[in-house]
Amino acid sequence: MAGQMGVLHALRDGAAGADLYSDGQYEAGVAVGFVCALVFFAFGVAHYRGFAPFFLDTYILSPYSGLAPAWLGAGGMLAMPSLLLPDDAPALLVVPTMLAGLAGMVAVVIGLVAIVWLPRRLQPRWMRERLAWRREHPTVWVKVSRDHPREWWAR
After folding, report:
1. Cys staple from 111: which of 34, 52, 72, 147, with CB 3.0 to 4.6 Å?
2. What is the DSSP string of 75-141?
3. What are the phi and psi torsion angles at 137 (to 5°)?
4. What does the pLDDT look like over 8-53, one tens digit per residue?
5. Are 70 and 47 in contact (CB under 8 A)?
6. How many CB atoms lie within 10 A of CB 84?
7. How many CA atoms lie within 13 A of 49 on its CB side?
């Protein structure tokens, strides 16, 4: 296990340069990545909770695109600690960190898929209800949402 970790760190150091890792810039980059993942996660969770539901009408790729940042941010936050493991880390630290990194990669894959499609089970209730209403009233929702957006969102 330690030999494999040495290879990963050698690849990382070779790509980033030994000087980059030795003066703390690598850790700073990981910290910036964690903060970005936290912002993505906060935006996605806010959308899951019902903040800015107008994204359901103004989407680019799919109505689920606003939910993808929650998964992408969670995946980034789970994967970041595995980038900071030292070569000689004890197995008690390596195993949970690598499992968290694996869970992070699964969350990133769900986030990438969520850009275009999200299973019904992972959709919030408010989204399921509004999408069902749009299916039942295919021509009404365009007129109501355009002319009276507050009335449509109150449903």
Report:
1. 72
2. HHHHHGGGGG--TT--HHHHHHHHHHHHHHHHHHHHHHHHTT---GGGS-HHHHHHHHHHHHSTTHH
3. -125, 70
4. 555 555 555 555 456 678 888 899 999 999 999 999 999 899 887 7
5. yes
6. 13
7. 7
Instruction: Give the helix/strand (H/E) hosting 12.
Output: helix 2-16
The gap from C-alpha 111 to its chain's centroid, in whole angstroms, comes to 5
CB 65 within 8 A of CB 111: no
Q: Taking CA 122 as the corner, what is the angle to CA 121 and CA 127, rounded to the nearest 5 degrees? A: 95
Using CB atoms within 10 A of its CB, is residue 143 exposed (0-12), middle (13-18) or buried (19+)?
Answer: exposed
Q: pLDDT digit string (tens) for 99-116? A: 999 999 999 999 999 999
User: Residue 155 carries which side chain, given as an amino acid letter?
Assistant: R
In angstroms and rounded to an integer, the radius of gyration of the C-alpha atoms of the chain is 21
Residue 119 structure tokens: 């299973």
- pTM for this prediction: 0.73
Residue 74 to residues 70, 96, 101, 147, Cα–Cα distance (Å): 6, 16, 11, 37
Domain ranges of the chain: 2-122, 124-155
120 close to 63: Cβ distance less than 8 angstroms = no
